[in-house]
Write a structure and sequence with these properties.
By secondary structure, this protein is mainly alpha-helical. 51% of the residues lie in helices and 11% in strands. The protein folds into 3 domains: 49 residues; 93 residues, Orthogonal Bundle (DNA polymerase, domain 1); 175 residues, Orthogonal Bundle (hpI Integrase, Chain A), CATH 1.10.443. A hairpin with a 4-residue loop joins strand 4 and strand 5. Helix 2 runs antiparallel to helix 4 and helix 13 packs across helix 14.
Length: 355
């Protein structure tokens, strides 16, 4: 057994352990000090003698990505997300780390890589790079191929939440009053009443609505690129929402009057899936007619959440209704709750404290 000195231009720049056992050589990681390499040597010897030695894979990141893409991604990702994942890896991660052995890639290298990407990519894209690399490493650890995940030592990029536009209750009601004349009315109504995502609205079927127990089950979404119903965005997106008396009445009336009689809750006059572009066009026209500011379809979902928070609904309830994994996400997004709400809160506290 010996400690190997790694030299560059005749100067020692690092150390690593060398352990020979049953005719094989086991090499440790590069260390900055001789003492660290000696500790590696002792640990390797102990593990070999006790039968606990764990030999990490020599696979490159390209190999790890190929395994992930073949064995994991098809079950987790939609076709669009699958293709997007391949593109992000090919164009950004592969040129930087693809040829490297996974065990050789350090946290500081990944951190620098993400920082350098800030000059050419949007914040959301950098988050996707981090998430993809993290998923590859987590998968390899789960399979017993690696011990450590260097992404654990990397500061995860934080999302930049854009200022969200929402409607007041009066604006939402004005909009829905005009929207009743349009085929897409139920799409708008569902987003405002239940906070559903666009794809969840279009993928909702009558079988997902339990009229007996008055529950709406969010279990699927419509994927427009593939033109079919498929899985939801995340595990937390699978949720069950109670239906109020008024909501029950509206849904029942819509089902009874819907023609043709089909499985979809929201559809064209011919019973087909509605196109997002057509719904957005209708929404623009309705906003003009109703005299309310234009917001996006996704911001109908934000309006639903904002109104709940303005009613002093508990953030945990809002989180669960929206299908967020963490209440922190909900609070970060809706930190814009209207100033009047904060003013009312201040007055209520003052009334209580001074009384």
């Amino acid at each position: 057994m010996a400690i190997e000195r790694i030299r560059k231009n005749g100067k020692v720049v690092a150390y690593r352990s060398n352990v020979y056992y049953k005719g094989r050589r086991y090499i440790g990681k590069r260390r900055q000090t001789k003492e660290e390499a000696k500790l590696d040597e002792l640990e390797q010897k102990r593990d070999l003698l006790t039968g606990n030695h764990f030999e990490e894979t020599k696979k490159t990141l390209n190999d790890g990505f190929d395994d992930y893409l073949t064995l994991v991604a098809p079950k987790r990702l939609s076709t669009h997300a699958f293709n997007s994942t391949k593109s992000y890896y090919k164009n950004h991660i592969k040129p930087a780390f693809g040829h490297r052995e996974m065990i050789s890639i350090k946290s500081i290298e990944i951190q620098k890589f993400l920082v350098d990407k800030e000059s050419e990519l949007a914040n959301s894209s950098i988050i996707k790079l981090y998430t993809l690399m993290n998923q590859i490493y987590k998968t390899m650890i789960q399979w017993g191929e690696l011990k450590n995940n260097p992404l654990e030592g990397v500061e995860k990029p934080q999302p930049n939440y854009k200022e969200i536009q929402t409607w007041t209750r009066d604006e939402a009601q004005k909009f829905l009053k005009i929207a009743k004349e349009y085929q897409a009315y139920m799409a708008f109504w569902l987003a405002l009443n239940f906070g559903l995502r666009f794809s969840e609205v279009l993928g909702l079927e009558w079988v997902n609505i339990d009229f007996t127990n008055r529950l709406l089950h969010v279990r699927q979404a419509y994927h427009e690129v593939e033109k079919k119903i498929g899985r939801l965005k995340t595990k937390s997106a699978y949720r069950t929402l109670p239906i109020s008396e008024q909501q029950f009445k509206t849904l029942k009336e819509h089902k009874e009057s819907q023609k043709p009689n089909i499985s979809l809750v929201v559809s064209t006059k011919n019973g087909n899936f509605m196109m997002k572009g057509n719904i957005r066009h209708s929404m623009k026209r309705i906003c003009e007619r109703a005299g309310v500011k234009r917001i996006t379809f996704h911001e109908l979902r934000h309006t639903h959440a904002t109104l709940l928070l303005e009613m002093n609904e508990h953030p945990k309830v809002v989180q669960q209704r929206l299908g967020h994994a963490k209440a922190e996400t909900t609070l970060n997004i809706y930190s814009h709750v209207r100033p009047q709400v904060h003013q009312d809160s201040a007055q209520r506290f003052s009334d209580f404290f001074e009384s």
